[in-house]
Amino acid sequence: MENTQAEGLGNTSRQNLRSGTPDTARHGDPRAAGYEALKERAGLVDHPDRTVLRLTGRDPVEMLDAILTNQVPREANLGIYATLLNPKGRIQTDLRILKSGEDVLVDTEPEGAGAAREILGRYAPFSRVEIEDLSANGSWGILGLYGPRAHELLDELRLAEHESAEAEVGDTKVLAAGVAAPVPGFDLLGLKEALRAAREHLKRAGAEPVSPEAYETARIEAGFPRFGADITPENFPAEASILDRAVSFSKGCYPGQETVAKMYYRGRPNRTLHRLRIEGPPPSPGAPILQEEKQVGTITSIAPLTIDGRTLALGYLSRNAQKDAPLSAGEATVLPVP
Q: What CA–CA distance (Å, rounded) separates 220 from 278?
């Protein structure tokens, strides 16, 4: 398994992978609602738990460049995906940086919000930057509009990944941010009231609500890791196969940079995240992956829906796993997906 193990997810997280129909859809299972819309039309995905922080002050971008693994563009409407590391190079949280006028927004998964607030808050006073939690008390939120027809519902708006622009959706205005993966489209950010109005307008225009299970299946199918599930504070960026998205090797210093650089230039990680296919009873996240009775990996995410009879998953595999020996998790056979 030398080549497959070493490459990990590669660039699959940037691909909009073609797939079939969820098997549950054929039986009217509501969990499959919206999956085909994500792939073929336009789907609406609620992200109620994400945290949005607003940075203002002297120069938030300068502060971020001193601590993030990636370089924040200076252009007024361009952002980036990055991570915050501890001094040993382990990921404390991943985050997305977006621009809104003179403000800089930080978007994180709920599992990484505490680390983002703590680390950013540690540097903010010295940089004369103020941090406001826009998600406090449920005031701000994020609504995803994804699929090949998403741009049609926003007056043919076209945005690069992490590029942002104000968008009028019906009678309300929100901030639209370009999304490339796991499904191309837009994230709409704003006050919850504005997002509710935008959601109703988009539904009337033809966007279809997407169940959490359908979106999670599309995420895992695309090989797109999520902090709190596939990435934890125990992981290095190279293990999670996010170097191409989250790390700049030409920017200035940041905490943990030495470890990241050594792993990139001088070696390779002991384990890497892979897309997997499960044949048999699906194991639970956290289940060990065995080879010849020895643990060589761990399941991190299992797709809630089967696609054309396939159960997909994400998980870590050791670089020492053998190429031709079978893998198993519980009673199921585990197969890496190229």
A: 12
Residue 101, token pair as written in the block:
């006028």
- Nearest alpha carbon to residue 216 among 304, 308, 126, 288: 304
Strands (E) in the chain, as ranges, are: 43-47, 51-57, 80-85, 91-100, 103-108, 129-133, 140-146, 164-169, 172-179, 185-191, 208-209, 271-279, 288-291, 294-302, 311-318, 327-329, 332-336
Residues whose CB is less than 8 angstroms from the CB of residue 252 and which lie 6 or more positions away in sequence, other chains included? 65, 66
Res. 10 pLDDT band, cuts 50 70 90: low
Instruction: Report phi then psi at 213, rounded to 5.
Output: -65, -40
**Separation in Å, CA 226 to CA 65, 196, 217, 293, 303:** 23, 25, 12, 29, 13
What is the pTM for the complete model shown?
0.92
Nearest C-alpha neighbor of 81 from the set 237, 273, 235, 274: 237
Distance separating alpha carbons of residues 184 and 15, to the nearest angstrom: 9
Closest CA to 316 of 271, 282, 278, 276: 271
- Asked if pLDDT for residue 197 goes beyond 90, the answer is yes
Q: What is the pLDDT of residues 307-338, one digit of tens each?
A: 988 999 999 999 999 988 999 999 999 999 98
Residues 271 and 319: their CA atoms lie apart, in Å, by 5
Could you tell me the CA-to-CA distances from 212 to 156, 190, 215, 217, 305 in Å, in that order? 26, 21, 5, 9, 11
Q: Which of 226, 79, 54, 41 is nearest to 133 (CA)?
A: 54
